[in-house]
Design brief:
By secondary structure, this protein is of the alpha/beta class. It has two domains: about 210 residues, 3-Layer(aba) Sandwich (Rossmann fold); about 170 residues, Glycogen Phosphorylase B (Rossmann fold, 3-Layer(aba) Sandwich), CATH 3.40.50. The chain contains 13 helices and 13 strands. Helix 1 links the parallel strand 1 and strand 2. The longest helix has 17 residues.
Length: about 425
């Protein structure tokens, strides 16, 4: 069986990309697996690609490439959804290359990995192939305009895969897709390139100037939605009772100067550090004592997954998709608190900062959950899904045929989820 993954840019970096590459490699143990990258911005991928995976780039955006001289390179995309936040990275040339590739694809299974690419898959994917769209974002994070563009397109897919059961239920309730299997496959936690560092080998009461001081690590773009200001304020309260702790924040963004002023104003100089850009592989969490996020957005989800896969207990909000199930399924490796709740955040941090035994137990649980959510189990879930889709293809086709009325307007709600 041949399986093709459709990626935004296989030459980039990030936890979601590494997770997809790990899943593809696990599937390659028994199948022919191909990676198709819509864009290519460098000669060699930054993330390690299993040599069994065939990588096919569609549009070369390196300076001086022939594609950049193509007359359609500068024309805006028409088939890629306009409401997708990545629309500005796509062009009419990408539209045409994606359509050409998909119409001629010989894969048995085609898997899209984000909303705009799922739209390509729905428009141009051959009907003889199983077409699976992965949905890494929360339903409400799509926004009404994007959901309106996707509503009819998604009805032609065979399956829509979310990262949590709660999100799968939300899609089923708010956007009926007759004949489309909507289900959850937890986000893959790939094994770290470096072994777990055993953070609890460090003394819990080491002075702040010591390289072995217990360290709280956070990572993400320095933007308002990540709420690093709330995390810094919470850390100030932690220091009042646990003065040996340090905070290290990795990331860049427009909030840097304001965060620096906040750190200085709270008297945390020397204890809290803005450590510069994030590493491409999450190595900033190696050796951390705790990882944390106060994010009101979704960008911190992959960062905390990087911590969990290194056996670092985490404290975070329940908003990033997949995080709650990753931590709580099987005992968990951390604590989740409500967004914007500074008191709950302080309480969770203090509870763990003063309890080395609990941290050790959570570290072990984090490693176990990372193993259970590894690429091998995820590959088995996809094999089972593919078998189910094949067995139900006729029945799902009949459901789709008898539901040919235009898709209803996607439901929108104001509740926070």
């Amino acid at each position: 069986m041949k399986i093709t993954f459709l990626l935004h840019n296989a030459y980039a970096v990030g936890a979601p990309l590494r997770a997809t590459l790990a899943l593809a490699a696990a599937l390659a143990d028994r199948h022919d697996v191909e990676l198709v990258s819509m864009l290519r911005h460098r000669e060699v991928p930054r993330c390690a690609v299993d040599p069994r995976l065939r990588l096919v780039p569609l549009v070369d955006i390196r300076v001086g490439s022939d594609d950049m001289a193509h007359p359609l390179f500068g024309a805006p995309a028409l088939d890629f959804p306009r409401a997708d936040r990545h629309h500005h990275q796509y062009s009419r040339l990408v539209d045409l290359r994606a359509a050409e590739f998909l119409r001629a694809a010989d894969a048995d299974v085609l898997i899209g990995t984000r909303p705009g690419i799922n739209a390509y898959l729905a428009r141009f994917g051959p009907r003889r192939a199983l077409r699976i769209g992965r949905v890494p974002l929360r339903y409400d994070a799509h926004g009404a305009p994007l959901l309106a563009e996707l509503a009819d397109l998604y009805r032609s897919l065979d399956a829509l895969v979310t990262t949590t059961e709660a999100e799968a239920a939300r899609w089923r309730a708010r956007l009926p897709l007759p004949g489309v299997r909507v289900l959850a496959v937890p986000a893959v936690v790939p094994p770290p390139d470096d072994p777990p560092a055993g953070p609890e080998a460090k003394p819990a009461a080491a002075p702040a100037t010591s390289p072995t001081a217990p360290t709280l690590v956070a990572a993400g773009p320095l933007v308002p939605g990540e709420r690093f200001d709330l995390l810094v304020e919470a850390f100030s309260a932690v220091c009042a009772e646990q003065p040996g702790w340090r905070l290290r924040i990795h990331g860049e963004g427009p909030e840097r100067d304001r965060l620096r002023s906040l750190i200085d104003g709270l008297g945390l100089a020397g204890r809290a550090e803005l450590a510069g850009p994030r590493t491409p592989d999450g190595a900033e969490f190696a050796g951390a004592t705790l990882a944390a996020s106060a994010s009101d957005a979704e960008a911190s989800g992959p960062a905390l997954v990087e911590a969990v896969r290194r056996g670092v207990p985490v404290v975070g909000t329940g908003r990033p998709p997949g995080l709650a199930e990753l931590l709580q399924d099987g005992g968990g490796g951390g604590v989740l608190v409500p967004p914007d709740d500074g008191r709950a955040l302080v309480g969770a941090l203090l509870d763990l900062a003063g309890n080395p035994e609990r941290r050790r137990a959570m570290a072990a649980a984090a490693l176990e959950n990372a193993r259970r959510h590894g690429p091998g189990p995820a590959a088995e879930r996809y094999r089972a899904l593919i078998a189910e889709l094949r067995a139900t293809r006729r029945a799902r086709f009949v459901r789709r045929v008898f539901s040919l009325a235009p898709a209803p307007a996607p439901a929108r709600r104001n509740e926070r989820s």
